[in-house]
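Batch manifest, entry 17 of 40.
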Amino acid sequence: MKFKLMSKLLSNERDPEIKWNPWLGVLYAILVFVVAQVLGLVIIIYPLIIRHWTLKQTLNWLSVSSYGQFFYVVFFEAIVVGIILYILKLYRVDKKAIGLRRPRSKDALYGLAGLFVYYLIFILAVIVVSYFVKGFNVNQKQNVGFNNVHGSAQLIIVFFSLVIVPPIAEEILFRGFLYSSLKKGLPIFGAAIVTSLIFASGHLTEGVGGLLWIGALDTFVLSMVLVYLREKTNGLWAGMLVHALKNGIAFYLIYIAPLMLFH
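Output type: structure tokens
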């Protein structure tokens, strides 16, 4: 009886296994990212085209409208999560295999500690890279979209688009699906490095006036901390909290602080 009880407890603690090849997981992650972008655009553009908008008008609206960008972010991130969950269902893999388990109270504590560690490591990394790489631009601005935000309603949707939705979807895709796939074929540190390099490379193109190297360094350090939290807590919730808090601070500095200066 005791043996059966112990076996049951151990089986509950053990993570379900990923059933696909780790490098197939990398391919899946890249395809999910690309397909979600395309489908997100199609979902938004198609209704406007059938209303006789030209493609130029539609793309211009998407580039300047906070509401257009909001809907694109929501559709894109929702499609990412939807495809990931479909893959898990297709392979009959439990969501716990990618860190989607019930949140625990300690996740919040790890998240707050992780935010502090992230900023500390990032500051040290910037100092080191600036010393060895002459001309490293630490002040380059990031293009986060939402350049024409007016009124509290638009601020709310921008907050939702930058602080709430991306941390959930990106943690599921990168520290959940991608990292869990790579960990099947690589040591933990190697899987963390590859995951973080892929995550950072996705932010290189977000610079104003060129590649955003400071952003790549930032997101690489962030990803390494998030991977550690993924391992430490055996879940994604602490990482989501760090990611959301980090984006929330950026949101405040970009959109709220300037408003307060003018009042």
